[in-house]
């Protein structure tokens, strides 16, 4: 509680409570951000953060700095890190674009393969129907052949008898 860090006259207690009741003082902006956006957010709580340098984070997360705190060499922005982060972001965006392109190509290939599979399944069904028809015709023709062979078997003794009779007549 910020009030425990300050000395004040009791008659100003309500004013200090009103002004500082939701203020947490942090050593650095990084500490303040970690506390506000990490620990408190997890608990569903909020507060205002003020650093010893005068930087502030409002309850809604807006950051503001004290101009005196931005002395040369003390700015809280590390431009090398910003440039490095920007380059890394560009690399990630490039990779993401590449992956999206590959995904589109794979999706297109998958659609083509699926269409080809459907076409082949249709051909297979057509050929299966044709095969069944040929098998029915084959069974029918085998039945006819069997009937013809039975007839031939029945005619063989008659043919043999007629051959003998013809031979007898020729003698």
β-strand amount: 5-15%
- Please compute the radius of gyration using only Cα atoms: 49 Å
What's the helix-strand series?
HEHEEEH
Mean pLDDT: 85
Shape: rod-shaped
Assign the structural class, choosing from mainly alpha, mainly beta, alpha/beta, alpha+beta, or little secondary structure.
Answer: alpha+beta
Helix content: 55-70%
Largest sheet: 4 strands, mixed
Going across the major beta sheet, what is the strand order? 1-2-3-4
Please count the beta strands (DSSP E, at least 2 residues each): 4
Number of helices: 3
Count of distinct structural domains = 2
Low-confidence stretches: none
InterPro entries: SMC_hinge_sf
Protein name: SMC hinge domain-containing protein
GO molecular function: ATP binding
Keywords:
single chain; 171 residues; alpha+beta; Alpha-Beta Plaits; 3 helices; 67% helix; SMC_hinge_sf; ATP binding
Q: Could you write a compact summary of the structure shown?
A:
This protein is α+β, with helices and mostly antiparallel strands and about 170 residues long. It has helices at about 15-20, 30-45, 80-170; strands spanning about 25, 50, 55, 65.
How would you characterize this protein structure?
It is a single chain. With about 170 residues, the chain is of the alpha+beta class. The chain has two domains: about 1-75, Alpha-Beta Plaits (2-Layer Sandwich); about 75-165. It has helices spanning about 15-20, 30-45, 80-170; strands at about 25, 50, 55, 65. The protein has a four-stranded mixed β-sheet with strand order 1-2-3-4, covered by helices on one side. The chain is rod-shaped, with a radius of gyration of 49 Å. The mean pLDDT is about 85.
């Amino acid at each position: 509680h910020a009030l425990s860090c300050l000395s004040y006259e009791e008659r100003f207690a309500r004013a200090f409570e009103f002004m500082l009741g939701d203020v947490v003082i942090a050593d650095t902006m990084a500490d303040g951000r970690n506390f506000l956006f990490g620990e408190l957010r997890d608990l569903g709580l909020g507060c205002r953060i003020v650093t010893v340098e005068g930087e502030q984070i409002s309850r809604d997360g807006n950051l503001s700095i004290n101009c005196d705190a931005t002395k040369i060499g003390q700015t809280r922005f590390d431009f090398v890190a910003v440039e490095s982060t920007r380059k890394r972001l560009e690399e990630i965006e490039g990779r993401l674009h590449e992956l999206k392109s590959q995904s589109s190509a794979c999706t297109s290939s998958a659609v083509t393969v699926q269409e080809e599979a459907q076409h082949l399944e249709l051909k297979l069904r057509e050929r299966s129907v044709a095969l069944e028809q040929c098998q029915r015709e084959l069974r029918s023709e085998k039945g006819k052949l069997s009937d013809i062979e039975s007839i031939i078997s029945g005619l063989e003794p008659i043919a043999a008898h007629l051959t003998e009779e013809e031979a007898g007549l020729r003698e």
